[in-house]
Amino acid sequence: MQTIIVVLGIVALYVVLEAVRELHTFRKVYYTVSARELNGMKRSRKVVFLSDLHNASYGKENQRLYRAIREEKPDIILIGGDMLVGKRSSSYEGTLSFLIRLAKLCPVYYANGNHEQKMKENARFYEGRYDRYRSALETNGICMLENRREAFLWDGAKICLTGLEIPLWGYKKQGGKPVVKRDLDRLIKKEEDGFEIVLAHNPKYMKVYEKWGGNLFLSGHYHGGIVGFPGNRGILSPDFRLFPPYTAGKHKLSEKATAIISRGLGVHTLPFRLWNPAELVIITLQGEKGNGNSRKTAGI
Length: 300
Fold this sequence. Notes:
This protein is an alpha/beta fold.
């Protein structure tokens, strides 16, 4: 019996220490996505994807995270939402300063998560804080994609960046109706050509996004499922579903569509991670002649 108690004590201590460690570190995760629509590019392009920072700071002024991004020399930075916390008592000044610094490295595109959207749609309650936040971002060159699309060329390849902002009722923990394709059609029309990257914060509706259309879907929101399991699975979603799909990692949805879900960089309501490290996602985009299945990680 004493041996069992000692073993349980060691296991409990390990869990506590590992959970504390994961709250203060992040890792880099690398993916490669290949597509015929990208064959017009003369070279591969590097995308850094950030999601669910929730005002976390890795070092003073988020210097560790900033350096990790800068050393990748990205061509573009994409933000998938929930960079702040939707509470009146929460300050976003540190996050804002960090994002403004990023905008000096390369173009930055930002799609909202439910925290930003909640602040926007309840402007009076939040005393206009979201409007001031968005204005400061746009003043410093960050492009906000609120149910809108930006298109540009990388050499001979047309790239479309779309930010989907689903209705807030799609995030309800109980009693909310599901988001369907018709809801997305009302928000924004599908682009018919080019390689389309869709920033869609909530991966719960990944099959709906795929039906709506796009080539690469980038999501977050689930924080990796709180506790990680093999096969990019987590134990719990924010709407309290057990073992939900699409909690992390890269998923091939169809011949032309891929999803990448970030475990996020921060926490909020439940400040806990286990076997589920925070992550900075780096994606290499290339023509289809390359290998689209590579993945590696590096701890920070």
